[in-house]
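Quick one before lunch.
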Amino acid sequence: MPQPAPQENVIQVRDLVNRFGSQTVHEHLDLDVRRGEILGVVGGSGTGKSVLLRSIVGLRRPTSGQVHVFGQDLLSLSPEQRSQLERRFGVLFQNGALFSSLNVVENVAMPLIEHAGLSRPEAQRLAGVKLALAGLPPGTEIKYPSELSGGMVKRAALARALSMDPEILFLDEPTAGLDPISAAAFDRLILTLRDALGLTVFLVTHDLDTLYTTCDRVAVLSQKKVLVVGPLDVVAENGDPWVQSYFHGPRGRAAEEAHEREPSPEVK
Ligand SMILES: Nc1ncnc2c1ncn2[C@@H]1O[C@H](COP(=O)(O)OP(=O)(O)OP(=O)(O)O)[C@@H](O)[C@H]1O
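Model of the adenosine-5'-triphosphate complex:
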């Protein structure tokens, strides 16, 4: 009988430790992210979800441990190798992190000019394609971040994260602050993009609806490490008190019931 192909881990975190002074945020944390999956990362406030994301994308040097992205340790690479590796992932930060002095198309074009060496007109033309991919209506290009709704800021930031055709997309609380309809639309967009572009998605979220709608697997950060990782129904059965109150509290039950009524056909 043919054996299934082994799963490729595009991100591998081993024995990660992160300390800030006397505060230990991560202790011996291990995590694998598989190619093509949407991995949801959840945990109580302050459990170190954003610090984990920053450690993986090379914005923070961990206290100790190894982080490999596509088999390479970002922090040990030469600047040129590092920049090549960084082109293979895009990051959407919590607040969008758009430059307020640039309009939307200039924000999205910037990485294409700086890292891909495109001319300004070429970069802006391609940025227009990315904005359409992120679901922004024509006319948004010339607006400044302060003129956009919260949902539009997220979509513009997503377009920028997609500008270099990344293989991995990191999303830090993408639906935070969005109304439920915009949040659901954003969830559908992430699923569509993953399927259309073959992305791997590392998704930090508190949003139970997002977990139920989009994630193939869920990792729970608790007790300074990844306490449990797996499909949502398996993770939700873990006996940890935080897991129990998160998945089986009123909001967890509502999200589960909504998902049972309307399961997403696109989830793998
Ligand atoms: N640069 C820093 N200096 C000192 N402490 C920090 C720094 N960055 C993060 N921390 C601390 O690390 C802990 C984890 O922070 P992090 O932002 O990763 O939490 P989180 O799980 O993403 O929380 P939330 O869900 O509230 O966004 C917090 O106690 C935070 O205060």
